[in-house]
Specification:
Blueprint: H1 11-40, H2 56-63, E1 68-72, E2 76-82, E3 87-93, H3 96-106, E4 111-116, E5 119-123, H4 125-135, E6 138-142
Antiparallel strand pairs: 1-2, 2-3, 3-5, 4-5, 4-6
Length: 165
């Protein structure tokens, strides 16, 4: 009668456990290595500071901008900024809800958004990435929903979502 060698008996579950542990260890090391590469390449990761807080002027100062205030209302304040990296719009909000509603509507136009608590900076991706190093925050991007339109704000004729009555 043939018997299996002793090292094979019961080795299946134990070997599977060792293999799983090895895979988890390798995966964990790989993910940490990728995050390090991303930080070194300026792609985000933990390299950004905690999200800044403050007034429009305080945030602009942290970003290295002399703000050109365009809107000064109770619900939001907005300024144009120009730095050596490029131009962007910095907006602060009175409420979290107002901020989220503004972002949701603005994303219809596409673009890159650096989002902090009750503030948003909007600009080209490279400008937003540079700002993140100074202001922290989270980068959100969006594709325009109406990229093929002329943008003249005119008639909706021929638009598949609207039908005449």
């Amino acid at each position: 009668m043939a018997t299996e060698p002793e090292w094979r008996v019961g080795a299946g579950p134990r070997a599977a456990g060792v293999l799983l542990a090895a895979l988890l260890l390798l995966t964990g090391c790989s993910a940490a290595g990728d995050a390090g590469k991303d930080r070194a390449a300026g792609k985000g990761g933990a390299a950004a500071p905690p999200a800044a807080t403050g007034t429009l002027e305080q945030l602009a100062e942290k970003a290295g901008c002399d703000p050109d205030v365009q809107t000064d209302a109770d619900e939001l304040r907005q300024a144009n900024c120009t730095t050596t990296t490029g131009r962007y719009v910095l907006t602060t909000f009175a409420t979290d809800r107002g901020q989220r509603e503004w972002i949701n509507e603005a994303k219809d136009y596409g673009g890159s958004y650096l989002v902090g608590r009750r503030w948003v900076a909007v600009g080209e991706a490279k400008v937003v990435a540079a700002l993140r190093g100074r202001l922290g925050g989270t980068v959100e991007t969006a594709s325009p929903h109406h990229s093929g339109e002329s943008g003249d704000g005119g008639s909706e004729e021929g638009h598949s979502g609207h039908h005449g009555s």
